[in-house]
């Protein structure tokens, strides 16, 4: 695992030391960022089910200002902290060890709004519909913001999630799919 582009291009990222976490492959990460914009001029991201933090860190490397990382597993949280520290970008991040729904509720109470929200839960274990409903309920997405859902290629997400229309859907390697909602 590495950072693909931007300020930290080529830097290695540590994976979470367990078999439960499935990091986004470099190929999928590269394709995803070519779709949503290879580089950013500021902005805020929320990386739910962050794992090693690879998606949020890639976004920071490409110009986002700040990212909130959320995962409920202690090993994932430790790995995110280690990756942020190794790149010296701790000041651009907040890291929370909690459930995704609690994190969204807390972010809503703080009035946080995001340009990009990454949803990469364990496959087939969390409803994307419920996640997007919570995003809308807590008013977390900026007007032109996007929600990126990484999921198993066999799982077909609808053309609209909780009133947010599908912008793009792609399958990579026959096993991983990305659905982007705006």
Task: Give a brief outline of the structure.
The protein is α/β, with parallel strands linked by helices.
Can you offer a commentary on this structure?
The chain has 182 residues and is of the alpha/beta class. Helices cover 29% and strands 28% of the residues. It contains 5 helices and 8 strands. The protein has helices at 26-36, 54-61, 74-87, 100-109, 128-137, and strands at 44-48, 66-71, 93-97, 114-119, 141-152, 160-161, 164-172, 176-181. Strands 3-2-1-4-5-8-7-6 form an 8-stranded mixed sheet. Helix 5 links the parallel strand 4 (114-119) and strand 5 (141-152). Helix 4 packs parallel to helix 5 (128-137). The chain is globular, with a radius of gyration of 15 Å. The two termini are 28 Å apart. The relative contact order is 0.16.
Which structural class should the secondary elements be placed in? alpha/beta
Give the termini separation.
28 Å
Cα Rg: 15 Å
Strand-residue fraction?
25-35%
Number of helices: 5
Mean pLDDT: 95
Could you estimate the helical fraction of the residues in percent?
A: 25-40%
User: What is the makeup of the main sheet?
Assistant: 8 strands, mixed
Shape: globular
**Which stretches of 5+ consecutive residues score pLDDT under 50?**
none
Strand count? 8
Helix and strand string, N-terminal first? HEHEHEHEHEEEE
Biggest sheet strand order reads 3-2-1-4-5-8-7-6
Q: Features of this protein?
A:
182 residues; alpha/beta
Please render the helix and strand layout as text.
Elements (H helix, E strand, L loop, with lengths): L25 H11 L7 E5 L5 H8 L4 E6 L2 H14 L5 E5 L2 H10 L4 E6 L8 H10 L3 E12 L7 E2 L2 E9 L3 E6 L1
Parallel strand pairs: 1-2, 1-4, 2-3, 4-5
Antiparallel strand pairs: 5-8, 6-7, 7-8
Helix pairs in contact: 4-5
């Amino acid at each position: 695992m590495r950072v693909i582009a931007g300020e930290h291009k080529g830097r290695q990222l540590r994976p979470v030391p367990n078999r439960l976490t499935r990091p986004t492959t470099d190929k999928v990460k590269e394709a995803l960022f070519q779709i949503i914009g290879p580089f950013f001029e500021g902005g805020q991201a929320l990386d739910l089910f962050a794992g090693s933090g690879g998606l949020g860190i890639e976004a920071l490397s490409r110009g986002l200002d700040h990212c909130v990382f959320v995962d409920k597993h202690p090993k994932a949280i430790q790995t995110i902290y280690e990756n942020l520290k190794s790149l010296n970008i701790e000041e651009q991040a907040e890291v929370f060890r909690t459930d995704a729904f609690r994190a969204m509720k807390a972010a809503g109470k703080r009035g946080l709004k995001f340009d990009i929200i990454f949803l990469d839960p364990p496959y087939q274990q969390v409803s994307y519909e419920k996640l997007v409903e919570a995003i809308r309920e807590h008013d977390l997405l900026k007007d032109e913001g996007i929600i990126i859902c990484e999921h198993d290629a066999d799982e077909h997400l609808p053309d609209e999630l909780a009133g947010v229309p599908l912008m793009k859907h792609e399958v990579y390697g026959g096993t991983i799919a990305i659905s982007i909602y705006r």
